[in-house]
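Quick one:
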Amino acid sequence: MLDGVSLDQLRTFVAAADTGSFSSAGRRLGRAQSVVSQTMANLEGQIGVKLFDRSGRLPRLTEAGRALLADARAVLNRMDDFKLRARGLSDGLEPELSAAVDVMFPTELLTRAVTDFQIAFPDTPLRIYVEAMGAVLQPVLDRRCAFAISGSLPLMPSELSQDRLLGVGMVMVAAPAHPAASLPAPISPKALEGFVQLVLTDRSNLSEGRDFGVLSSKTWRLADLGAKLSFLRAGLGWGGMPLWLVADDLAAGTLVELAIEDWPIGFKMPMFAVHRSDDPPGPAGRWLIQRLKDELAPVSRTGSPC
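Output:
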């Protein structure tokens, strides 16, 4: 019998409890008092529980009725959420949004945008992959992600479209005890050839056989930016890092900036929102990209957008 309980019965139960009488519930629901009374009687018969005490002039919730009222509200609220999400999906809203983000992209900016996304799309699950170089674009090419935030791979496959977002400040750094830190500025690239350069590796094959920003013939390659930072602090090599990640180290002196010939002062790596030209993001994806574009924090040495 419990399987036959309907949403209409639960709505009538909640309306009667909220208004305090069957007649008032009828006016709210646009039906006769007798229909409300019969609906409640049928519900009580189905669940085997008396919801209202009818001994007085007005029906009063029983102890069991008060206990079940919260459950009835929860069921109706979930149904409202179901209807809203179904309406969104019928309008093209993604059932889940997946995006790949370049490891160089400022975490603080991404967090602010995602915080607003959660408010705007509370029922849309978000899946974020943090990758480097070609591995940022590969899941978009494979249609595993709706879009990517990419900046560290100059080669853009022809099937992808891109939209400029911001620039991320980049610096070459080393530990203060590293031999490169004691070289007179500006440091020639030739002087750095004998020192290990720590380089992010591409876990895809999009840049296979090509290096970007590699000046040394000796390289250690890492797939994790956090590991690269730890190695830099330990003096295991020198390399490029985003300003937003090493600003505190530069201020504390645990890392020092290397002034290298032909390395532009104040260089900023451009970041782009990238998606397949034949499969643009849906409403949630477009919203998140626009939110990132609207990020107008002031330019600073911490790698804020420009």
